[in-house]
Amino acid sequence: MRINFLPAYNGDAICINYVHQNVAVNILIDGGTKQTYQTKGKKNTIISGSLKLLVEAIRERKEKVDLLILTHIDDDHVGGILKWFEIDQGATGLIGKVWFNSGKIIAGYLKEPEIKIPELSLVPQDTTDTGINQGVTFEKVIREAKIWDEGIITQGQCLNFKGSTFKILSPSKDGLKALHDKWFREASDSMTSVATDYDQSLAYYLTALVSDPDGSIHNGSSIAFIWVYDEKNYIFLADAHAETLINGFKIFEYDQEHPIPAEVVKLSHHGSNRNISLELLEMIDTDQFVVTTNGNKHGHPDKKGLAKILKSKTNPLIRFNYPNRIDDIFTAEDRKFIGFRTDSALDGIVIEEE
Ligand SMILES: [Zn+2]
């Protein structure tokens, strides 16, 4: 079993690979930013990102992405997937199944009237003819490819998948309701990952900054889970809210007195302090934490959040999928503090078990 936290710029792209009944299984959790799939270099040369290299390797091995989990619709999680779908006509043919809480699915689950909810649209590159027309949405593509059963993924569910189990910690019904209400209030807001946000004035956004400083409602809709494989727990927190996660762990009968033993935790929201609480950390018995970001855009992780880890754990190992983060975050003074370990790798963090 192998988990690879790919370098995905400021986003998440995680691949789990294992063998079940003599067949290789690949689970992809998010696809990072669009550059994680492909970007342009000097003189318009095309540079393959870590997601594209992963997809090509899977295709080469004649395997599939047996399960694609899109945790939520923020750019740094869905951008690479949209780029993949835009460029690679064979993309959906390579995917076995998708878990994704779309606006429509959420509205149905909450029994709210259907509203105009922005969808993730696929916009073809101007230079290539991809065969996907402008305005085609991610949902339409996965529905027509019959790789999405349109089921809601919510807190408390226990989902079996090819010899492993997902215990869903987030989103909660409240988190989904908040997201739905936000969509309802801001039906014209630019929430699709490939659209620009130019249709509102700077003055508007400046006001919005004060009243709504981040996309935390999106984060509250994140699909986060305990992945159980070979009787071991691996925890993937997406960008979920700490309070939702705490309630999620309680549903599965873990608390501070009975913490869940875990091999590793992928910290929520790229190690943002706002998504890490001492109570949450005390519900998890692990010494291995992974931070997924190059630090761009949001300046994650927060040192304040990492300090909480040092406070609640003995000599934890904090792993970074971008090596430069360690020197950016920790001063020489910090390094003298020997109560924690760090490591990193250029091609992403890899966790392997026999
Ligand atoms: Zn994120």
Task: Describe, in plain words, how this protein is organized in 3D.
The protein contains 12 helices and 20 strands. It is an alpha/beta fold and 354 residues long. It has one domain (2-352): Metallo-beta-lactamase, Chain A, CATH 3.60.15. Strands 10-11-12-13-15-17-18-19 form an 8-stranded mixed beta sheet. It has a 6-stranded mixed beta sheet with strand order 7-6-3-2-1-20, with no helix packed on it. A hairpin with a 2-residue loop joins strand 2 (14-20) and strand 3 (23-29). It is globular. Zinc ion is lined by residues 11, 74, 76-77, 239, 269-270.
What is the total domain count? Answer: 1
- Corresponding CATH architecture: 4-Layer Sandwich
Query: Strand order within the widest sheet?
Result: 10-11-12-13-15-17-18-19
Work out the radius of gyration: 20 Å
What characteristic shape results from the CA principal axes?
Answer: globular
Mean pLDDT: 85
Could you tell me the number of beta strands?
Answer: 20
Structural class: alpha/beta
Distance between the termini: 6 Å
The stretches of 5 or more residues where confidence is low (pLDDT under 50) are 125-134, 187-215
Helix content: 25-40%
Lay out the secondary structure.
Blueprint: E1 2-5, E2 14-20, E3 23-29, E4 38-40, E5 46-48, H1 50-60, E6 67-69, H2 75-87, E7 98-99, H3 103-110, E8 121-122, E9 136-137, H4 138-144, E10 158-161, E11 164-170, H5 173-185, H6 202-211, H7 216-220, E12 224-229, E13 232-236, H8 242-251, E14 260-261, E15 264-266, H9 278-282, E16 284-285, E17 288-291, H10 303-312, E18 317-320, H11 324-329, H12 332-336, E19 341-344, E20 349-352
Parallel strand pairs: 3-6, 6-7, 13-15, 14-16, 15-17, 17-18, 18-19
Antiparallel strand pairs: 1-2, 1-20, 2-3, 4-5, 8-9, 10-11, 11-12, 12-13
Helix pairs in contact: 3-5
The protein binds zinc ion.
